Amino acid sequence: MDLENLRARRLRAHRLSDPAPDVVSAARHLTATQAQEFWGGRWALAVRTAGEPTLREVDRAFDRGDLIRSWTQRGTVHIVDPRDLGWMLSVTSARQDRQAAGIHRSLEIDDHPLGRAERAARAALCGGNRLTRLEFAEVLVGAGVDTSGMRGNMILTALCRRGVIVLGPVVPREGAPTREQYLVAADEWIRDAATPVDPLAELLVRYLRAHGPAGLADFRWWAGLPLGLARAAREGAGERVSEIEEGIFVQAGTAGGSGVGAGAAASFDGLEVPALALGPFDEYYLSYADRTAICTPAQAAAIGPSANGAVKPVLIGSGGEVIGTWKHSLAVGRHHLDPVAELAPGGPGEASVAAALDRFARFLRG
C-alpha cells in the first residue's frame, strides 16, 4: 500500500480527519488511549472530537464516570470506557503481571503485602469514598504496608491490574490544570460492564477499527501480547477482519475506519486535513511497531520512545506525516504560556502550524 493511501486511512480511523461527535465517543472508538501524561491523553480525545471541546469538558467526562484511566496494557496507563476495563484486563493482566514480576521481587512485593493493601484499599474506598494518591499511601502505611521508594506506585498499579482500583474524577489543582485523579473502587465506579464472547478477538477488531490499516505486529506491540496470541486473535476475529493486502488488515466493512468499502482506496483527494498538534504518546504516532509510515527513522529516534520512555508531542502535516515537534508546560505560572513549535526543515507554512497550536491553547484555557 502506498504511504499516502495508508496515512489517509489511518487519519480517518483515528478520527483525526473524521471527528467523533463528543469526547466519550472518541474514547470509546479508540478503546484505549495512552495517557501517561494525563493532559496529553485528554488532548488526544479533544483533537479527535468535533466542536473543539475544552479541558473542562473532558474532565467532566471523568467526573461523571464516563471515562477512567487504568493500566490496561504494556504496563502503561490508558483512558478507557469503564465498561471495557474488565474484559481488557482478562486478556492483558497476566502478561503485565509477568512483566512486573522481576521488579516486584526486587522490592519484596508478593501476595502478602498486596493482599493487605487490597483489603485496606477496599475498606477505605467503599461507600463512594475517593482518595488522592497521597491519601492512598497514608491508608497503606496505616495498614502496615511499606510504600517507600517505588513500592507505593508498584502496589497501586498492581491493584489496578487486579481490577480493585481505577483512576476516576479529577483532583482540583490551584493555579493550573489538574494532573491527578482520585482513586475510586472499581466495583462501585464501573456500571453496565459486559464481556464479549471472545475478548482477545474483540481487542484486535477494536484496534483495527481505530488504527487500521495495520499488521499483526502492530497489534501485538499495542496490546503487549506475544505473537501466538496475536495470531489467535486474528483467527478468532474471523470475518470481522479483512486482509486488504498481504499481512495488512482493517475491520471488515471499513477502510481503516473510513466507512469506505474494505477494498476501496482512500486518499487525500477532497479531504480537509489541516496541520495537527498531537500530544505526547499520541496513538496516531505511537501505536504501531513500525512508525516510519509517518516519519523518517531519524525523526522517530528524536521523538521517542527515548531511553527513559518519553515520547514528544508531534506536529502532523496535511498529508498525515510528521513535520516537527512542539512543547508546552503545565507548571503553575507557566501553563498560560503559548506552546512552542519545533519544525522540521521544509515543513508547512507557519500559519498552518500556528492554527494547530492555537487550538490546543483554546482547549487548555477554555
TrEMBL record:
<dbReference type="InterPro" id="IPR009351">
    <property type="entry name" value="AlkZ-like"/>
</dbReference>
<protein>
    <submittedName>
        <fullName>AlkZ family DNA glycosylase</fullName>
    </submittedName>
</protein>
<dbReference type="Pfam" id="PF06224">
    <property type="entry name" value="AlkZ-like"/>
</dbReference>
